[in-house]
TrEMBL record:
GO terms for cellular component: cytosol. It comes from Secundilactobacillus odoratitofui DSM 19909 = JCM 15043. NAD(+) binds at residues 9-14, 145, 260. Substrate binds at residues 110, 260-261. This is Glycerol-3-phosphate dehydrogenase [NAD(P)+].
């Protein structure tokens, strides 16, 4: 059944998901806080800074006025960088109160908030209380916008503690190239989604330094092991980490030139400073902030996360990458499980 859906955030992922929902027959409004981007989308049906050589559906309408974008929406999809979720959610709550609507919420952001260590669904639940909304679902998995733009086969997971909400999201998004599974483990899916970005920074750095496939496979595997340990400390389902949001997303982000996290790591490995890498990317590199959150969270919870710690030391304490790798390799031998 066709729905009115507001998509908040018109970067690579928000704009491509909005286009997919439009193609699936929904009435979609796409919000961006940048007027020039809204004008480009409405006049030329392009979003050149984020996705090159792609023409968006003519029926997809962009707005810079949040309340206008949210009008009559029965579902709201948040796709802004994690650091912007709280402020966009708080503006959304005010607009929904004026509109007297109570939509279902979905988010597709992958990060852990700095200082609070909140997952994105927790931020949404705090800023938009239950009386102002329906359920919250997270959409996650191995999914670069560039591949979805090409209608390349993509499989993701929709996770909500309310299975019927996840099934609803599954129906909204599924089509011949985009397949959605359901999951009720919101904690596991959000932790896996956020922390795989740290590992992608690492595999990118290995690539930039000239290391081979063995090293990258090792980092992804042991990275997933420590992500699973952190997830387990919050009661996540261990199976989630061998699913799409876990191993699936580590593979795609940890090996792909499309990944901003991987590319950032590659540039770091080649000797650029973190500031230079952030300045030239021009898009969000979620792994940078999430490395700090995950490092502090692991310390707080007493979870052993040596790879996250090493990447934190490189990004935030100026440790040389080769020295960080050498220190990881010289840790005392231990049992794999
Ligand atoms: N790009 C992908 O392929 C992809 C896939 C899956 C998940 N994600 C996740 O989706 C989220 C968004 O990523 P993206 O790739 O679309 O990012 P992006 O950098 O391409 O764009 C982010 C968008 O958010 C907007 N924005 C930034 N700060 C804002 C603020 N304070 N208030 C309002 N809007 C703001 C920007 O203008 C931009 O339009 C991230 O958490 C990312 O991890 C991205
Ligand atoms: O480009 P990245 O590194 O933000 O990764 C995008 C998606 O999370 C891949 O699943």
């Amino acid at each position: 059944m066709s729905e009115k859906i507001a998509v908040l955030g018109a970067g690579s992922w928000g704009s491509i998901l909005a286009n997919l929902l439009d193609e699936n027959g929904h009435d979609v409004s796409l919000w961006s806080y940048k007027q020039d981007q809204v004008d480009e989308l409405n006049q030329h049906h392009t979003n050149t800074h984020y996705i090159k050589d792609f023409t968006y559906s003519e029926t997809l309408v962009a707005y810079s006025d949040l309340k206008a974008a949210l009008k009559d929406a029965t579902t709201v999809l948040f796709v802004v960088p994690t650091k912007a979720v709280r402020s966009v959610a708080s503006q959304t709550k005010r607009a929904l109160a004026e509109l007297h609507t109570k939509p279902a919420l979905i988010h597709a952001s992958k990060g852990i908030e700095q200082d609070t260590y909140k997952r994105v669904s927790e931020i949404l639940a705090e800023e938009i209380p239950a009386e102002s909304r329906q359920s919250i679902t997270v959409l996650s998995g191995p999914s670069h916008a560039e591949d979805v733009a090409k209608k390349d086969i993509t499989l993701v997971t929709a996770a909500s503690t309310d299975l019927s909400a996840a099934e609803h999201v599954q129906k909204l998004f599924m089509n011949r190239y985009f397949r959605v599974y359901t999951n009720t483990d919101v904690i596991g899916v959000e932790i896996a989604a956020a922390l795989k970005n740290i590992i992608a920074l690492g595999t990118g750095a290995l690539h930039g330094l000239g290391y081979g496939d063995n090293a990258k496979a090792a980092l992804m595997t042991r990275g997933l092991a420590e992500i699973s340990r952190l997830g387990a400390s919050f009661g996540a389902n261990p199976l989630t980490f061998i699913g799409l949001a876990g191993v699936g997303d580590i593979i795609v982000t940890g090996t792909s030139h499309n990944s901003r996290n991987w590319r950032a790591g590659d540039e770091l490995g080649k000797g650029q400073s973190l500031e230079e890498v952030i300045d030239t990317m021009g898009m969000v590199i979620e792994g940078v902030a999430t490395t700090k959150s995950a490092y502090e969270l692991a310390k707080q919870r007493g979870v052993d996360m040596p790879i996250t710690t090493a990447i934190y030391q490189v990004l935030y304490e100026g440790k040389d990458i080769r020295e960080a790798i050498s220190d990881l390799m010289q840790r005392e031998g231990r049992s794999e499980f």
